[in-house]
Amino acid sequence: MSGVTLVDDLRDDLMGERTSKATATIVVDAHVVKIRNLNHYFGHGDLAKQVLYDINLDLPKGQIVIMTGPSGSGKTTLLSLIGGLRTAQAGSLQVMTQELVGLNKSQLVNIRRNIGFIFQMHNLFESLTASQNVEMAVELFSNWRDKRLKAVEVLTQVGLADRIDYKPKNLSGGQKQRVAIARALVNQPTLILADEPTAALDKKSGRDVVMLMQRLAKEEGRTILMVTHDNRILDVADRIINLIDGRLESDETLDHFVATHDPKSLDRRMFMM
Amino acid sequence: MLPPRYTFLAWFNLTHEPRRLVTALAGVAFAVLLMFIFLGFKNALYDSQIQLIKILNADIVIINSIKDNMFVPEQFALRRLYQARAFAGVESAYPLYTNTADWKNPVTKEIRPLRVLAFNPHDPVLLVPGVLENVEALQLPWTALIDQQARPEVGPITVGMTTELMEQQVQVVGTFSLGTDFAAGNGNVIMSDQNFLRYFARLGPEEDSRTLNTVDVGLIKVTPGTDVVTLVNTLREQLPKDVRVLTKAEFAQQELTYWQENTNIGFVFGLLTSMSFVVGIILVYQILYTDVADHWAEYATLKAMGYSRLHLLGVVIQEAVILAILGFIPGTIVSLGLYELASDTTGLLMQMTPERSFNIFLITLVMCLISGTIAVRKVLTADPAEVFG
Question: Is B301 on the interface with A (CB under 8 A)?
């Protein structure tokens, strides 16, 4: 990043700070995410490589959608575009009725404040307690007075009421990921984006974490888009979409997915729950 | 420290690993220490040159017109002082004689040159402890006061002991505290003008014998309410041009200017201080960069969550400021100890004034801020999209 663009970006940040209050209230549409003819390229000019081809996708409110596909198929790119982590280039990408194509970096920062992110790694600050890590998310909305209250509430929701003031090194892998989920949920985002949230966890903790996400999503009407390779957790989805070579190959309900896929590739016992 | 209303991430990140914090603070403290020592020596070398001038009890000074620093052994005629006494506003005028004398270390019998300051004990030339109490004793023949802060080579100093000065007996009847400078590299001796004659009036044919008729520094006190500058101008016009008339401040400045212009002290110690500053920048940069690099994913996650670059910039800058403040304190304490040590060993005047400490603190702050600004680029360029996948 050159010095000039750095300065420009910082100025955008300053402008963004002032307008953040205005964008904090967003009218909720029936479709939380609405994608039309989205194309995306890496690189410029002759070296440009298309990674997403003509994506059309609607995510209604309250739905849990799992995105699968081989590595390199563009799942993560699509996820980061929806999350406003990358600048969308061509087509239309609406998140909570806000068009993301054409927004600059500081406008994207404001979009991101209304989205919950859960990553493969928990990415918690080792120096902060579980509560403080969650509180840092609350502070984004200048919510000083009841930040502790909110953090305690959401940590209790994810079953960590007795671990509120523990630092990450004193928590198990599953507990840390649950703190990360609490951090993503504390501002009650309409949309939650998760990137292989169970990849670093053992089978039981991974399943617990996903069941927790499912319960919270159903209770509070959140939309979840989750990228995963983990077959053991596919059953929590309302819908499974498959991305291959940058194209949306299939988009089906869980029942249909189960019916059309080789049962041997799935752990059948999971579907008994 | 009162907790701020936001989570004080900078503080928690710094204090999370106490061992790393201690290392970091040691780094900052070391840079502070180096700057204090080099600036301290520079200031000491300059300050020491004028410490004698500062304690001279005078408003106006008369010297030989070619004496542009204390090292020049040129005198002027005593009658110029008598002439000066005739001017309105001059309350008194009295001579100070200086010379270099060979002092024999009473233990090792080694010879060391000391600067002799001689005056009539009844003239208020030096109103400092050690001199005032010993006016009577100084009037006895072959007696002198010796500088407590003289270099250790001068030998143990005990009141009442006898040794040799200019190969003649001298009795130490008391001590005073002054210190060394370039003109008095080993220390100072104070004696009466009569004893000055006893030691220096009958030197060998190769050397310039001294009388009381030629004066090294003439000191003038003005009557209260007199405008010193006007009187100096009058004296300059009226007195013959073989003498120079200066206010005491001008005299000190002349001495300082001479050493600033004729030595490399300023350049050498300025360079050393700048190098310490750069070393400090590198040390602090390493510390901050390590913190940022180790927590890269966490910072990128903050960005993904909607923290702007300004916030993250703020965190790193706060860390820099905390390091500056916490590192400055031990650095200053150790420096004070080293100043004491250096002062005792060299006899130089090592002064840590509040103003100088504050300046060093500002330099330290700037040092840490520069490091923080370089280190923060890593955070600013952290691409939150890279945390996915």
Answer: yes
